[in-house]
Design brief:
Blueprint lengths: L9 H8 L16 E5 H18 L2 E2 L9 H8 L6 E3 L2 H9 L4 E7 L5 H9 L3 E6 L2 H14 L5 E6 L7 E2 L3 H10 L3 E5 L11 H24 L6 E4 L2 H6 L8 E2 L9 H6 L9 E11 L4 E4 L3 H4 L16 E4 L5 E10 L4 E5 L14 E5 L3 H5 L4 E5 L5 E6 L5
Parallel strand pairs: 1-17, 2-10, 3-4, 4-5, 5-6, 6-7, 6-8, 8-9, 9-10
Antiparallel strand pairs: 1-11, 11-12, 11-16, 12-15, 13-14, 13-16, 14-15, 17-18
Length: 397
């Protein structure tokens, strides 16, 4: 198999180890483990989501916590200036510095972060924050008054009992809305329970539950005389399976950009749509136990086991031919140590000739966000083994 080529000469490896200079060569010339990004797949995924939200009649506010890259965002937007969602203030600074001005920081605000939020707003960033308690609302209002600076704030709504938020019918919703005063900008939710759905019908129902409860919360605020301009919903599964977004102003999704094995199991993408992968080298054979060892462990692949409860458990990643990206039947990364990944066979029989020492494989991730977080850049390919570019990403908080 072409994907089972041996290591390049040492001098070629060393040229890439210094992380400098323009991209050159192929995925067989880069150090391992490395993160690759298939540009044609990314472009197809981006175009499909833009068309989906166009049909739904809402604004797309992509969540960049998956990619953390301005180069990826330019593909997602199709060249348009659109709002984004971030998960860290480091992302907010990075994307603002690259010209993005409408940003939602979609993690409940810690009051200690308000000075940093204020600095971004004063610099011209239209940054919005979220919260779900009267105490946090009071802290934002007090800070806003003390600094004579409005801080646009969305109230997080609990539409599925999955994680955070205030219920749409909870009296606290109105209390929070009043406490925010002029900082109140709208409501938002994230139906994380969509990841527990096991059929298309279940996910369709969850998407409608997400929509209807968030709209209900907005209507309750308005009925109480409290303005509610933004109604923001979203997760990749609920946007993908949503049938209508009446009453909603914007949809947020992130992992659709890359896809991953969890998304493939949920039905939002196919294996052939997954745009990122970890290139790893075969470093050992344990013939007695039927194991192939690679140099990508849990630090390179993440410990995410998102497919563990799904119809097909992919362990720590699916194994593909490095050059073609084609899925290798019957094998997967069944366990990891810090720097070791262990490939085994579902049938119990593994063909070691398929994995010569020094050859390379591509591992598709369970959770694209978690796996990508281990890397500072993407090796961007053109759909083949050729490395066409390197794109940096921002990590940290």
């Amino acid at each position: 198999m072409q994907g089972l080529r041996t290591f390049p000469p040492l001098d070629k490896c060393m040229k890439h180890q210094d992380r400098t200079g323009p991209p050159q060569g192929t995925i067989f010339d880069i150090p391992t483990p490395s993160l690759t990004l298939d540009l044609p797949r990314l472009e197809r995924n981006a175009a499909a989501m833009r068309e989906k939200v166009r049909q739904l009649g809402v604004t797309l506010r992509p969540h960049v916590k998956t990619s953390k890259s301005i180069d990826v965002l330019r593909v997602l937007t199709g060249g348009d200036a659109i709002p984004i969602t971030v998960s860290t203030l480091a992302e907010a600074h990075y994307f603002f510095e690259h010209g993005v001005t409408d940003i939602l920081y979609a993690v409940g605000i810690a009051p200690a972060k308000l000075p940093e939020v204020a600095a971004l707003i004063r610099a011209g960033c239209r940054l919005k924050i979220i919260l779900d308690t009267p105490e946090a609302a009071a802290a934002v209002a007090a800070f806003s008054d003390a600094n004579d600076l409005p801080i646009p704030t969305l109230i997080e709504i609990d539409t599925d009992g999955h994680r955070a938020g205030v219920a749409a019918d909870d009296p606290l919703l109105i209390e929070i809305g009043r406490a925010l005063g002029g900082n109140r900008a709208g409501v938002m939710t994230h139906a994380g329970a969509s990841y527990d759905c096991r059929s298309d019908d279940e996910t369709v129902a969850m998407a409608e539950q997400e929509r209807s409860l968030t709209v209900e919360a907005a209507e309750r605020l308005r009925a109480a005389g409290l303005a509610c301009e933004i109604v923001s919903v979203g997760s990749t599964p609920t946007v993908h399976f949503g049938r209508n977004l009446d009453g909603v102003t914007e949809a947020r999704a992130g992992v659709y950009a890359f896809g991953d094995l969890v998304q493939a199991e949920l039905g939002t993408c196919a294996i052939d749509d997954i745009a990122i992968g970890v290139i790893a080298s075969v470093i050992g054979h344990n013939r007695h136990h039927g194991r192939v060892l690679i140099d990508a462990g849990f630090l390179a692949l993440s410990r995410d086991r998102g497919t563990a409860g799904m119809p097909l458990d992919w362990g720590y990643g699916a194994v593909c031919d490095a050059a073609t990206g084609e899925l290798l039947d019957d094998v997967f990364v069944s366990s990891t140590n810090q720097e070791h990944g262990i490939i085994t066979s579902r049938s119990g029989e593994i063909d070691f000739d398929r994995f010569p020492i020094g050859s390379r494989v591509k591992i598709l991730p369970n959770h694209a966000c978690a796996t990508a977080a281990a890397y500072g850049r993407y090796f961007v390919t053109d759909g083949s083994e050729r490395v066409a570019a390197t794109w940096d990403r921002v990590n940290g908080w």
